[in-house]
Design brief:
With 128 residues, this protein is mainly alpha-helical. It has one domain. Helix 1 packs antiparallel against helix 3, helix 2 crosses helix 3 and helix 4 packs antiparallel against helix 5. It is globular. The two termini are 22 Å apart.
């Protein structure tokens, strides 16, 4: 299969994941705000909305190939604080520790994948 098409499919999958989570942050805020408050994040509502906007912008840029560097910075600005604030598995015990550790590692893996995109020269194939 053509590598440009594979790369575009990968961008669609990653970008769609980010957009799905942006939707949750922006339109299903009630549960996310409660969870954010439980983690003692100040101004939880603002944090949820701003993080949703970062995901929205990042997902859009990855799918479209437009303003990619800015989008990757937005995604990093989401994942770094969220990973180390919301998924502090080292503070938990039992099932909560296991779940937070899974989320922590997943976030690091996604952040790593997104940062690798910076190594691919722009304009990307199949971009606007």
């Amino acid at each position: 299969m053509n590598t440009d098409i594979l790369f575009f499919i990968g961008r669609l999958l990653l970008g769609s994941f980010l957009l799905y989570n942006a939707y949750n942050h922006l339109f299903k805020t009630k549960d996310l705000i409660a969870y954010t408050e439980s983690k003692k994040v100040p101004m939880a509502k603002v944090a949820v909305i701003v993080s949703g906007l970062l995901l929205l912008f990042g997902g859009y840029t990855i799918i479209t190939g437009v303003r990619v560097t800015a989008g990757i910075i937005a995604v990093a600005l989401f994942f770094i604080p969220v990973t180390f604030t919301m998924h502090t598995f080292w503070k938990e015990e039992g099932q909560a520790r296991m779940m937070d550790q899974i989320q922590f590692m997943k976030n690091l893996a996604i952040l790593g994948a997104v940062l690798m995109l910076l190594a691919i020269p722009t304009p990307w194939p199949v971009s606007l």
